[in-house]
Amino acid sequence: MPDPEIDLDKERRAYEMLRWVPYSFPADFNMELALLGVYSKAQKERSDKALDEFDKQHPYESSPELAAFRKLEKLGRFTQSDYYSPTKAQESYYTRELKRFTRDRHSSARKRTQERLAGNKRPRRLSSNF
């Protein structure tokens, strides 16, 4: 049954694109198929398949700055209220901040460990056997 909301211009454009695809629609434009939305559905499937194939061959990789920003979020340096700034990213702010933040965290953890170890030492009493 034909769909009343079918745009015949859209169907005609879809048919024109499909007509150059081998083994697709060798016949002339058919009004019955157009009213059923067959051409736009076929074109959408063809387009989605091509996009999926492209995405598979070209996986998305975020920039080092965006990756650094997300890592800083996970580490608690930034919160959800802090927004990624492309201007700061151009200046390599996030990668520098990540290096500084992790360096500071490691050095403060090392100091805490040293303080804890130093605090565990009891003063030694020398026994005098004289």
Helices and strands in order:
Elements: H1 8-18, H2 31-35, H3 38-57, H4 64-75, H5 86-90, H6 93-119
Helix pairs in contact: 1-3, 4-6
Structural class: mainly alpha
Radius of gyration: 33 Å
Mean pLDDT: 82
Task: Determine the fraction of residues in helical runs and give it as a percent range.
Answer: 55-70%
- Element pattern in H and E: HHHHHH
Beta-sheet strand percentage? under 5%
The DSSP helix count reads 6
The poorly predicted ranges are: none
Largest sheet: none
Spatial separation of the terminal alpha carbons = 113 Å
State the domain count: 2
The count of strands amounts to 0
Based on CA inertia axes, which overall geometry fits? Answer: rod-shaped
Describe the structure.
- With 130 residues, this protein is mainly α.
- It has two domains: 8-57; 64-119, no CATH class.
- Helix content is 62%, strand content 0%.
- It has helices at 8-18, 31-35, 38-57, 64-75, 86-90, 93-119.
- The longest helix is centred in the last third of the chain and has 27 residues, at 93-119.
- It is rod-shaped, with a radius of gyration of 33 Å.
- It starts with 7 loop residues before the first helix and ends in an 11-residue tail after the last helix.
- The model has no long low-confidence stretch (mean pLDDT 82).
